[in-house]
């Protein structure tokens, strides 16, 4: 065999395949973590955006009456879904009742990432291809502050009277002129019920997790408001009006628990995997996730709101400034505020239902869920889980930066 | 070989060898290599040069006074670079260290593996090569998640180690620097194995026989003949492993803790979580510079010009 022959054909093929696959795996990896999509890179950071002092973008013309459709961007597994037909039953019902074709995309995985994708186009008042999107309270506050969403026409949405009273007024949108609640959820504690019994550990509060028996077996959330909110509540702080100093105290406590080795990892939805594998015996958690975990498994985990207080957060429906089908989007929101429809969604997603009357509707649909306080919380439960206050622009920047530093990045 | 291939591709013909071609045919021949390069150049321009340019523009921006999150104005502020480097020195060091350790481990595993396939593979050779590449048929993320399960506290590996008293009762394998380096090694091992295999496979067996004929033992032949001749593969493999490993953030994110974050994690956090594009852009350029310098020094030292 001569030394300098070209590579044999099969090795070339392999190396080509390796390269191609390497690229493939990297791309899917990026998509998987919801990280730097090429679109984000190019659109979000290419050019400097002008200061908002120039004024807020003007809203687009509504084409609802000519084009009978509505584009809705939502989070994965956040709408009733029929495994057999692979369709969303309520969307089909909506189309047959209104003649408006809903185009539904599960393309929001992360508030920040989604914001990075759309912010620049919205500031120029452009259509982002979505007439309706679903984002969490604090991000909703940010886009309302910047004038990136449209004022809602309540006349088209009479069913909005069914929005639960405690959600009618939020600090970032008094009177709900720009946003309506899609679903809510609790932030609290999840733990492995049997293991806690074996270890003789009783968990009622965040402080109960800092037990030598649980050292290196606790996970907390990488969402700043959830993790520091629970810690602040434990420290006796009112999360509806905390100060910068109180935030700092909570951050100190958080860093101390990391350096003392109690907190194993800080993660997003990954904590569910860690609970399953047994790496984590207890975690800061979201109510719907734990319901889902228990449904998949054998109900090994307990979710509870700490006695010192948990948190209530919501995802909100909003119409961006560039939307072409505003009225259709409003008709769709109105549709989902019918108690019967809301109950169908709640039966599937198992998050806190924001619609008054859905509980009665549920008794006809699935009586086993009527007493579920994580879907239909009573006054007492709601009182234990306040909504954390909205941060100012300045606070958003500095608090986030501090929190990321505590995460080691 | 290289000279021959250049002239075949349409470089200047050695004069006198044959009749001069008609002029129009000659220019067409001359333009052929450029036409062939065109798709590659366009691809590079659109997906490398252009993003690099916009990224460099972003890197010198600053937050607009009183501006919103993610709003920046161009101020040509070069101090951004120094501030980014100063704040994240530790992460740069960690990235280089972890990637270096993973590269070394991949070499120690990959070389014998490639050697075995090339010389002892026999008719199984192609099957073995496919097996090396097989993990790529599964998503990178999923494979890394799988390692979390494998190394989990309640998993077989940890339980066996504890049973054998190789690990203290309180210790764990996930959420450690060890797990991060293991993940990097595992994920980039094929990038090490295949180039080494390619250079071992085309190695002239007569040279090895000559080595034995000259009374070289197996070890001496390996050291004096096989290893030097496979150096291009080793250099290519180490580069293909080190460069992506240094920029990786998935392994540190999934298998590490707050104390094992690499520069990729910082860039991700700055871009995605904080919408702080200038710092992220600066860090990307600094990382490129660090890797470029390391690679240049490495290629100089190993002296394999023919590789690049």
Strand content of chain B: under 5%
State the order of secondary-structure elements of chain A, H for helix, E for strand.
HHEHEHEHHEHEHHEHEHEEHHHHH
Biggest pleated-sheet summary of chain B: 2 strands, antiparallel
How far apart are the first and last residues' alpha carbons of chain A, in Å? 53 Å
Domains of chain A (count):
2
Q: What CATH first level of the largest domain in chain A would be assigned?
A: Alpha Beta
> So what's the overall shape of chain B?
globular
**Which regions of chain B are unreliable across 5 or more consecutive residues at pLDDT < 50?**
1-16
Structural class of chain A: alpha/beta
Descriptive account of the structure:
The complex is a heterodimer of chains A (409) and B (308). Chain A has 409 residues and is of the alpha/beta class. Chain A contains 16 helices and nine strands. In chain A, strands 1, 2, 3, 4, 5, 6, 7, 8 and 9 form a nine-stranded mixed β-sheet that branches. In chain A, helix 3 links the parallel strand 1 and strand 2. Chain A is globular and about 65 Å long. Chain B has one domain: MetI-like (MetI-like fold). Helix content of chain B is 71%, strand content 2%. Chain B contains 14 helices and two strands, in the order H-H-E-E-H-H-H-H-H-H-H-H-H-H-H-H. In chain B, strands 1-2 form a two-stranded antiparallel ribbon. The N terminus of chain B is likely disordered. The interface between A and B is large, with 70 and 78 residues.
């Amino acid at each position: 065999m001569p030394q300098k022959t070209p590579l044999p054909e099969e090795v070339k093929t392999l190396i080509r395949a390796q390269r191609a696959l390497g690229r493939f795996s990297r791309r899917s990896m990026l998509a998987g973590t919801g990280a730097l999509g090429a679109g984000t890179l190019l659109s979000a950071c290419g050019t400097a955006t002008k200061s908002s002092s120039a004024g807020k973008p003007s809203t687009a013309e509504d084409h609802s009456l000519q084009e009978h459709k509505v584009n809705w961007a939502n989070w994965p597994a956040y709408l009733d879904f029929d495994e057999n037909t692979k369709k969303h039953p309520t969307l089909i019902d909506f189309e047959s009742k209104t003649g408006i074709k809903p185009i539904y995309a599960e393309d929001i995985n992360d508030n920040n990432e989604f914001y990075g994708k759309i912010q620049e186009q919205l500031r120029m008042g452009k259509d982002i291809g979505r007439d309706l999107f679903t984002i969490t309270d604090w991000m909703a506050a940010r886009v309302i502050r910047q004038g990136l969403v449209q004022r809602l026409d309540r006349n088209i949405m009479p069913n909005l009277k069914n929005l639960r009273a405690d959600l009618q007024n939020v600090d970032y949108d008094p009177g709900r002129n720009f946003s309506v609640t899609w679903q809510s959820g609790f932030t609290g504690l999840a733990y492995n019920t049997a293991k806690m019994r074996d270890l003789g550990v009783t968990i009622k509060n965040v402080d109960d997790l800092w037990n030598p028996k649980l050292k290196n077996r606790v996970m907390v959330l990488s969402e700043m408001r959830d993790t520091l909110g629970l810690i602040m509540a434990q420290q006796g702080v009112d999360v509806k009006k905390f100060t910068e100093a109180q935030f700092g105290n909570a951050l100190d406590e958080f860093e101390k628990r990391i350096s003392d080795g109690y907190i194993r990892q800080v993660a997003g939805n990954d904590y569910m995997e860690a609970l399953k594998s047994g790496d984590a015996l207890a975690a800061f958690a979201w109510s719907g996730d734990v319901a889902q975990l228990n449904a998949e498994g054998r109900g090994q985990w307990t979710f509870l709101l700490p006695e010192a207080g948990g948190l209530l957060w919501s995802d909100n429906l909003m119409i961006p400034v560039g939307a072409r089908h505003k009225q259709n989007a409003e008709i769709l929101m109105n549709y989902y505020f019918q108690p019967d429809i809301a109950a169908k969604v709640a039966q599937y997603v198992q998050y806190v239902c924001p619609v008054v009357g859905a509980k009665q509707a549920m008794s006809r649909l699935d009586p086993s869920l009527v007493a579920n306080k994580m879907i239909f919380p009573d006054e007492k439960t709601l009182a234990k889980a306040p909504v954390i206050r909205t941060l100012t622009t300045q606070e958003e920047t500095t608090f986030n930066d501090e929190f990321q530093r505590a995460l080691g990045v | 070989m290289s000279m021959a291939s250049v002239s075949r591709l349409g470089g200047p013909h050695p004069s006198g060898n044959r009749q001069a071609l008609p002029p129009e045919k000659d220019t067409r021949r001359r333009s052929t290599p450029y036409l062939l390069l065109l798709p590659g150049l366009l691809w590079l321009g659109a997906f490398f040069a252009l993003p690099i340019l916009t990224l460099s523009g972003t890197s010198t921006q600053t937050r607009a006074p009183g501006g919103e999150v993610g709003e920046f104005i161009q101020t040509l502020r070069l101090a951004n670079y120094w501030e980014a480097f100063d704040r994240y020195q530790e992460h740069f060091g960690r990235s280089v260290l972890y990637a270096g350790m993973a590269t070394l481990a991949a070499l120690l595993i990959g070389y014998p593996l490639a050697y075995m396939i090339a010389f002892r593979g026999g008719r199984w050779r192609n099957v073995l090569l496919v097996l090396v590449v097989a993990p790529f048929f599964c998503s990178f993320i999923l494979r890394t998640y799988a390692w979390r399960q494998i190394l989990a506290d309640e998993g077989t590996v940890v339980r066996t180690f504890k049973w054998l008293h190789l690990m203290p009762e309180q210790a764990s394998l996930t959420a450690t620097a060890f797990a991060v380096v293991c993940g990097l090694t595992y994920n980039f091992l094929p990038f090490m194995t295949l180039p080494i295999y390619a250079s071992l496979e085309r190695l002239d067996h007569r040279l090895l026989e000559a080595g034995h004929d000259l009374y070289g033992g197996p070890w001496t032949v390996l050291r004096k003949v096989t290893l030097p001749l496979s150096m291009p593969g080793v250099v290519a493999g180490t580069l293909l492993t080190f460069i992506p490993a240094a920029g990786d953030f998935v392994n540190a994110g999934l298998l590490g803790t707050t104390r094992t974050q690499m520069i990729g994690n910082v860039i991700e956090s700055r871009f995605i979580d904080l919408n702080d594009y200038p710092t992220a852009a600066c860090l990307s350029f600094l990382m490129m510079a660090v890797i470029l310098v390391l690679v240049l020094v490495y290629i100089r030292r190993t002296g394999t010009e023919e590789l690049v």
